[in-house]
Amino acid sequence: RFERTGHDQDLDDALAAARHAVASAGDGRSVRTAYLSSLGTALRAMYQRDHQARDAQEAEGAFRAALAALPPDAPDRATLLSNLGATLYEHYEREHGPDLVSQAEDAFRAASGVVAARPRVRVATSTSWGRIAADRGRWRSADEGLSLAVGLLGSLVPAELDREDQQRELRRHFA
User: What is the pTM of this model?
Assistant: First the structure.
């Protein structure tokens, strides 16, 4: 609801609920992973709102804990890695720590390599990987990420879609 309304109390309530869910989840791997992901998302929104480094660091920790509970071939890994990468990059943009941008690039690279993930997620993460690498002057890595994104376009916009739908989908990633 916070994303729709922008009411601070909604974000505070979401964060409290996510913390409670994680604390009460026990060892149920799939449930705990989902709750950790929600906690990371709420903390990332808190960081975007308040710009407190501790919120970004806690969000990063929640995403890493969720990732640790998933098998390497789980499709959800790509989304969690993407969320981790985005959080690290936002943290980098405010704090300018070179380790943060390097970790963000690595997270997007890893996410783009999750073969079981949805094509849309893989295209988005490989594009983010390529853009971050290019911003850093890491041209080989940028080429790898952006080439992967281009190579995945066929699975993202199949020929069966009409031209308008293909163009709309491509604009989502390359506009």
Answer: 0.89
